[in-house]
Give the backbone structure.
Amino acid sequence: MASGARPSPGWPAVAVLCLGVWLHAADSLLAATVMPSAIAEIGGVAFIYWTVALYQLGSIVAGAITGILAIRLGLRAAMTIAALIYGAGCTVSALAPDMAAMLLGRLLQGLGGWMMALSHVGVTRLFPARRWPQLLAVISGVWGVQATSLAALLLVALGLALLATALSLERRRNQLFPPHPLDLRRPWGAGYVMVLALSIATVSFTVYGPLLMETLFGVTPLVAGVMIAVESVSWTIAAIVFAGAGARQEPALIRGGAVAITLGIAGLAWTMPQGPVAALVPWVVLLGAGFGMCWAFVMRRVVESVAESERERAASSLPTIQLLGYALGAALSGIVANLSGLAADASRGVLEGAAFWVFAAFLPLAVLGVAAAWRLARGAESTS
């Protein structure tokens, strides 16, 4: 929709869009908090990362058709269908007697997860461009109120090969992403690489943070959940604080956000093995605040840098690339954790080693995210 083509629908519409993101955020928080306790009852510690990976994969599949659904069905009908699928997944997960049923429920929940991508599409379709940064900050801020063997490595390699094939086919058909979505020479390509790399690098805290805190430090699920919430609340606060930043501050916020996230990952690798839990707080804050301070501006930069005909596609696909990063990160963190010897009966020394590597192994990807942020910010400077 062209900017100013119709009156803005107002705050009731914003509330609905926020609800789509809130459900995804609440799911990430609750799943991360209760999963260690659920595993204690139904078993399956070697498959804990699949509870995140399958949810994100389902969301990616749903996100791939978000743009088409929004056009053919309209936002209202598309979000209603997504909510029904998500509700069915919640029911299956809540009643799961074993890990297989739990994973099925998580997949269904993910398939209903296109609500988050639809929320971003709604901002760009329903509101003029001048209001995008503030509205995206509000919506993203709602985030605060996410047995391996050599066979598993082969499966991950196969998955990456399939991803490369999908991107190749997508380039020819040009349906899900704007052209050349991972080309660092293009502003939107740098944005996609930044979001993908940093999402992969950070999700291990959601997957393994509660389990490690409970096993290493004996904290309760409530305390572990509070730590996950600290990341989300930090995202919210940063998004609100920087929502009114202008074009001159945009490059610094994009770069600063990526650096903060990287420092948070490094800090968790340093402090998680030995603790105490309180020492984790500054690094968890950096993880959340880093995303919060830059997300709205990355989104605006990506959407405004593509052709007018590609903007709806860009708005829906950036959250999808984030979910793709979370799915890949969950699978890769599972490989790292299990290769480090993480298991229900692991010794403290093994647990401490795993607590280091599930974060440290992703620092190279975080550095790639910082480099992409620098290129994206450079493009923002040239147009400000």
The CA atoms of residues 330 and 373 lie 22 Å apart. The longest helix spans residues 11-42. Residues 11-383 form a domain with the Growth Hormone; Chain: A; fold (CATH 1.20.1250.20). The chain has one domain: 11-383.
